[in-house]
Amino acid sequence: MLQKENNQQKKLFQDKSIAGKSKQRTATLWHKYNKIFAISIIFLTLSCIYIFLDKNIYTEQNIIVNHNYDTGDNTESQDINQTIKANKEIIDNDNNTKYTKLLQVIAVIDGDTIKVNDLGIIRLIGIDTPETKDTRKPIQCYGEEASNKAKELLDNQEVYLEFDSANRIDKYGRTLAYIYRKDGLFYNAEMIKQGYANSYTKFPHPKLEEFNEYQKEARDNNRGLWSPNTCNGDTGQAVDERLKAELNTQSSKYISGYCDVLNTKGMGNFTQNNPNYRLSRDKDKDGIACEMN
Question: Does the annotation mark 281 as catalytic?
Answer without folding.
Answer: no
